[in-house]
Amino acid sequence: MATATLTIDLDALTSNWHALDSLSACETAAVVKANGYGLGADRVAKALLDAGARRFFVAVAEEGAALRAALGPGPEINVFSGHMAGDSEMIAEMQLTPMLNSLDQMLRHFETLPGAPFGIQLDTGMNRLGMEPAEWDAVREIALEQGPTLLMSHLACADDPEHPMNPQQLAAFHEMTDGLDVPRSLSATGGILLGPDYHFDLTRPGVGLYGGLPFVDAAPVAGIHVPVIQIREVAPGETVGYGNTWTAERPSRIATISGGYADGILRAMGPKAHVFAAETRCKIIGRISMDLIGVDITDAPDIPDTVELLGQHQSVDTLADAAGTIGYEILTSLGARYRRHYLTS
Amino acid sequence: MATATLTIDLDALTSNWHALDSLSACETAAVVKANGYGLGADRVAKALLDAGARRFFVAVAEEGAALRAALGPGPEINVFSGHMAGDSEMIAEMQLTPMLNSLDQMLRHFETLPGAPFGIQLDTGMNRLGMEPAEWDAVREIALEQGPTLLMSHLACADDPEHPMNPQQLAAFHEMTDGLDVPRSLSATGGILLGPDYHFDLTRPGVGLYGGLPFVDAAPVAGIHVPVIQIREVAPGETVGYGNTWTAERPSRIATISGGYADGILRAMGPKAHVFAAETRCKIIGRISMDLIGVDITDAPDIPDTVELLGQHQSVDTLADAAGTIGYEILTSLGARYRRHYLTS
Fold it and tell me: Do the chains contact at B2 and A132, CB–CB below 8 Å?
């Protein structure tokens, strides 16, 4: 078995959801876009449904359709990208709730699916998705007559609690939505941690559910163990891997492990990342290749059968630091080649 | 439809295989590991089988089993990681040919599957996979008695034709295999381009088939078109995206497109990458987020419905440069969310 194992702890996931839910007095949804941040949207969403989540968010209608097939009727499935041309039939059949981002999308929705549920996404300064204040002013009355399920916006700098953009977006959201009798949502994980002013009627945590920053108290959800294919002794002066980028400076014991950038072990982390052989932290050496990585296990007392890349010893954020990115990308990059193993009590 | 389209030109793929095949007088195999470099191992391998390839290489036994199910009996499927503990049944049932990397693997193979086909991987200096000269000396006679199908090794620096490691590994390969009556293979795409000395009996191109360097004459195989969700005008001083990292310096028209790092559009390429709106090269602005990217389309004469990320205007290697990586990683990072469209004549 040369296939690496990706363990997904569904109990840790639901405990993270409960922990984030306990930080607010309002309803807590769950963001399961990008295949549940790489961990399997169907399994993740079912576990969160059992834990009490009743509203889910996905990026595109196709993700929503797959999620509806997994969850069955009942839970609300919201689509951040809204109502795109060509999606009307899928939205209707799979009972999706698009977050309408523009006048164009609103007209499309009202014309093709009159009476069908929808939310409105407002832009409070991130300039990414959602209606801007002037557009919202122009269409607000028409929109409200049709009974939106949600008015939402998204924070650009919530991971940095001191950033002046946070109160600025909060004020803009109030200005655009105060006094309207519609449920409101502004915050994902970062916003939940900014405190009650940011919670409104619904929060929508994503990365915190999956064990990533900025939720420092998150339980780790993903674990990766990679099999060792071969061990070799190399003498000082010998090189390892593509481009001869690593040269042994001492008599070294090298393990070749069966994982690589095709498994989402980002090539960029090569020079800085480590894995664990039991309790010993071992450096990744040479270039990460597509399916193989060299590891210096000279200091490990025993020869391991597998090494830990993610788990009790190392978080997604540690790996993200090594790769110069964020934990979110570590999770969504995990490839299709893992043997996936879901833990649940 | 907010899902991006990944177009895979199977005619370009097979024309790359024929072009690489024509560079040598020997047999040309095909490497289809990592799900055919992200493009779909089943479709890719079937097209290459029709084009004339009869030997395929995968990384692990599970990939081989899936490939056998797609191709049916007949073509030889070689497994680079060799014969791992627990894989004997799969190797036998799916008629896989492991490339044995060590004495351990050899004993396992001979004991559990006596008479079953195998190759031998030799380490000629990369120190990644394969038997070293001393180990090979010790087991060579036993191995040869069992009739290996192939003796192979892998070059560490073939992408750099002037690297002294190339002739060094070539000499080591000769020393380990000359005079043995077994087919030999040393070269993947880079090695093919090093010339006939490196070809032996079988070449095993990978990245060149898929349109990537170092095969400069490769036809592009992968194309990506990403839908535009929303257009907005931003005034000088306005910021776009997470962390407010981009500020408009002129009145700008921004498209939000429906793709992100969850689709393998590596977050690291954000500051340097472009997309094409018809013929206009447009800069990606702000941080690439999980499912969304901002693009400055101010200079585009028309508002696009989709933009091209990969295709006629931009190769995998251009994107790789922007991300500080190699084309291989661009391909294998392509996620599961694309609508995949296979072109074939």
Answer: no
